[in-house]
Amino acid sequence: MKFYPLQFKPILKERIWGGEKLKTVLRKPITSKITGESWELSTVEGDVSVVANGEWKGKLLTSLIDDFPNEILGTKVHNRFGNQFPLLFKYLDAREDLSIQVHPNDELARKRHNSFGKTEMWYVMQADVDAKIIVGFKEKSNPAEYLENLKNKTLLALLDDVKVNAGDVFFLETGTVHAIGAGLVVAEIQQTSDITYRIYDFDRVDVQGKTRELHVDLALEAINYNKIETKKEYTKNLNQSNEVVDCPYFTTNFIPLDGEISISKSGETFTVYMCMEGSFEIEDNNSKTQYVKGDTVLLPGAMNLFGLNGKASILEIYIS
C-alpha cells in the first residue's frame, strides 16, 4: 500500500464575527460574507474531514484511520490515542471581535463532556493595523473579582490585550481566558475538541435579534486566574525546523524554506504541514505535489522519507 500526502475538503463555518478573508487571503471556496472558520483537518463528531485528493478521494479520515491506524497516525500516536485523531486544524477570519471565552482542561472536559480538553496555539497570518487579542489577566485575579467585573460589564479592565503582527505566535493552555480581535486571520492548532465556554459576547445579537448563549457557571471552575505568558518567541533559521511550541499535545515547528530539504521520520507520528506564505512541493517516490498559502496537508506516519522544495513559510506539526 502506497501512502501519500493527504488533503481534505475544507469544512466552512459561518460565524457572527466572520468575514470574507478566507476567500480573499486563503482562497477558500466560501460563498457567505460571514464565514469565520475553515476546518482543515477534523474528526469532531458531525464534522469529519473528507479526503480531497488521490486514491482515497471521498473517504472519511475516520475510516482511513480505522483501516490503517498505525500507518496513518503513526505507531506511537496510535498506541497513545487508539483510533482517535487527537488534533484539530483551522483557519479563522475575525472581521469582528470573537467572544471572550475559555476552554476546560482534560480532566474537566472528560468529566463534563466525555471530551478532550482544548489546549491550542495561534499563528497570526494577517493582521490589520492595531489588531489585538485578549490573552489572560493583566494581574492575578480570583473568582469573586472576575464575577463582580463580569456583572458590571467591566471585565475588559481585568484582561490583558496585546497588539499583534503577522508571524506572532500565542500558546494558550486550557484555562486561559482569551479572544481573537477584529482584523486577524489566524491558523489554529488544537486538541480535538469543540468545547468552548463563552463568558462575554459584547451584548451582540444575531440576525434574529438573539444573543448567543453564555456559559458563566461552567467557566468559573475552568478559568486560570493567574497572569500567564502566552506569546512564543522563536528562531527562523533558514531551511530548518525551528521549534515554536512543544507541549504534551503537539509540537509545532516553523520552517522558513528557500530551496530544498530532506525529511526523515520514524513512523511514530503523522506530520501536518500548513503553508503560511509562498508555495512548496512535497516530493516522495518521484511524485511531486505543490502547496500554496492556506493549504494544509497530512503526511501519514508511514511516510518516512520525503523532501520539501520551494520558497515558503511552513508550520510543521506532529506529536512527540
From TrEMBL:
Pfam short name (any one): MPI_cupin_dom
UniProt xrefs under InterPro entries: Carb_Metab_Reg_Kinase/Isom, Man6P_isomerase_Firm_short, MPI_cupin_dom, PMI_typeI_cat, RmlC-like_jellyroll, RmlC_Cupin_sf
Domain of life: Bacteria
SUPFAM superfamilies: RmlC-like cupins (SSF51182)
Residue ranges of coiled coil: none
Domain Mannose-6-phosphate isomerase cupin: 244-318
The keyword Zinc appears for this protein: yes
GO molecular function: isomerase activity
Keyword terms, alphabetized: Isomerase, Metal-binding, Zinc
Range of residues in the leader sequence: none
UniProt KW Hydrolase keyword: no
Domain Phosphomannose isomerase type I catalytic: 8-114
Protein name as it appears in the record: Phosphohexomutase
